[in-house]
Write a structure and sequence with these properties.
Elements: H1 5-10, H2 19-32, H3 35-42, H4 46-60, E1 65-67, E2 72-74, H5 76-102, E3 107-113, H6 115-122, H7 126-132, E4 136-142, H8 149-152, E5 156-160, E6 169-182, H9 184-190, E7 204-207, E8 215-220, E9 223-228, E10 233-235, H10 238-246, E11 251-255, H11 256-265, E12 269-271, E13 280-287, H12 296-308
Parallel strand pairs: 3-4, 3-5, 7-10, 7-11
Antiparallel strand pairs: 1-2, 5-13, 6-11, 6-12, 6-13, 8-9
Helix pairs in contact: 2-3, 2-4, 2-5, 3-4
C-alpha cells in the first residue's frame, strides 16, 4: 500500500478509471509496435491512443514505453506489465463470457448518436427497452460531432453513411433516402424548383462540418450531377437544419427518416424528387471488440435495436410538392 500522501491523493478511484479499456489499448500498442498501428485497428486517432497510454503510465507512476520518432520500445516494467496484462484480459474475457451466458443483462450501456438520430430513433424506444431489460441503465449522449468511442467511453454509437475501414463492428439498422425539402410557405413565396439548375435562385441550407461535402448530388439525363450549395446558410446540427427549413429559411437536404414526421404533418414538402439519385444511406450501430465477447448488457441493446428500428418507410420515394397544395 502506498503511504505517500501526495500519491494517495492523486490516484483516482477504480470506479473513475476504465482500467480494462486502458489495458487493452496498451496491449494493442505493444503488440502492433506503434500508436498509429493501434489507432488504425481501433478506428481512432493516434493522439487518442497516446493520451490513453500516457494516462495509464501516470496512474501507475511508471514508464511502460520508450518513445522515439522511429519506434516504440517496452521498458522492463512495460514488458512485465504486458505479460500480466494479457493474462488479466484473458481472465476478464472468460469471466464476462461466463457471466453473460448465465445472467440477465445488467449495468450501464453508453450510447452515442447525433442529436436528430437520438431524438427520432432512440428516444421513442427507451421505455420499451427498459421494460424489456429492467436491469439495464442507459447513458445517452447526443452530439453531431463524431467522437472516438474509446475517449467517449461509449459502448455503442449510431452512425450514418458509409463507414471508413476499421476494426469497429457494424450492425446495419436500415437505410434511408436523402431528399430536398422546404416548407410549403417558402415554396409558395419563392417558387418550386423544377430542375437542379434552378437551385441558384434559392437559399440552400448546408453543413459547416470540415468533413461535409459542399454539394448536392442529382441524376440528370442518366448521369450524376453535383450542384454546389454555396455559402448562404450553414449549420452543424440536424435539428437546427430541419427547423430552419420548416421556418421557411430555405431548402435543405435531409434524410427521409429525419424529415418524415414533418412531411407527414405537412410542415415540409419534397422537391426535385424526379432528379433524386435514389442512393440509400446506411445507418449502423457500431462498437469495438469481438462479437463473441460482448457483455450481455451491450448485446441486449444491439439485439433490441436490430429488432425494433424500422426504416422501411425511409427507403421509398415520397410524393413531390404541388404548387396547388395548401
Amino acid at each position: 500500500m502506498n503511504s505517500h500522501p501526495r500519491a494517495a491523493a492523486a490516484a483516482p478511484s477504480p470506479v473513475e478509471v476504465n482500467r480494462s479499456g486502458e489495458l487493452e489499448v496498451f496491449v494493442l500498442v505493444a503488440e502492433r509496435g506503434s500508436f498509429s498501428a493501434a489507432a488504425r485497428v481501433l478506428g481512432v486517432s493516434p493522439s487518442a491512443v497516446s493520451k490513453i497510454v500516457a494516462r495509464l503510465e501516470a496512474r501507475l507512476n511508471v514508464q511502460l514505453l520508450l518513445r522515439s520518432t522511429r519506434r516504440l520500445q517496452l521498458t522492463p516494467e512495460g514488458s512485465q506489465f504486458l505479460d500480466s496484462g494479457k493474462r488479466a484480459l484473458a481472465e476478464l474475457n472468460d469471466a464476462e463470457a461466463a457471466a453473460a451466458a448465465r445472467s440477465q443483462p445488467r449495468g450501464v450501456v453508453r450510447i452515442n448518436a447525433s442529436s436528430s438520430t437520438g431524438q427520432l430513433l432512440l428516444v421513442p424506444l427507451v421505455s420499451r427497452l427498459m421494460e424489456a431489460h429492467p436491469g439495464l441503465r442507459l447513458d445517452l449522449s447526443f452530439t453531431d460531432q463524431v467522437v472516438d468511442l474509446i475517449e467517449a467511453r461509449a459502448d455503442i454509437a449510431i452512425r450514418w453513411g458509409e463507414l471508413p475501414p476499421s476494426d469497429m463492428v457494424a450492425h446495419l439498422l436500415g437505410r434511408t433516402r436523402q431528399v430536398i425539402v422546404g416548407s410549403p410557405d417558402y415554396l409558395h413565396r419563392r417558387g418550386c424548383p423544377q430542375h437542379p439548375d434552378e437551385l441558384r435562385h434559392h437559399v440552400r441550407i448546408g453543413w459547416n462540418y470540415q468533413r461535409a461535402v459542399p454539394n448536392w448530388p442529382f441524376c440528370v439525363d442518366g448521369r450524376k450531377v453535383d450542384v454546389d450549395i454555396g455559402d448562404l446558410v450553414r449549420v452543424n446540427d440536424g435539428d437546427v437544419m430541419r427547423n430552419l427549413a420548416m421556418q421557411g429559411a430555405g431548402l435543405a437536404r435531409l434524410s427521409l427518416y429525419h424529415a418524415w414526421p414533418d412531411l407527414a404533418a405537412g410542415r415540409l414538402a419534397v422537391v426535385l424528387e424526379d432528379f433524386n439519385t435514389g442512393v440509400l444511406e446506411p445507418i449502423h450501430a457500431i462498437y469495438l471488440g469481438k462479437p463473441e465477447r460482448l457483455p450481455a448488457r451491450t448485446r441486449a441493446v444491439l439485439d433490441f435495436l436490430k429488432a425494433e428500428v424500422d426504416l422501411r418507410h425511409a427507403e421509398v420515394s415520397p410524393p413531390e410538392f404541388s404548387s396547388a397544395a395548401g
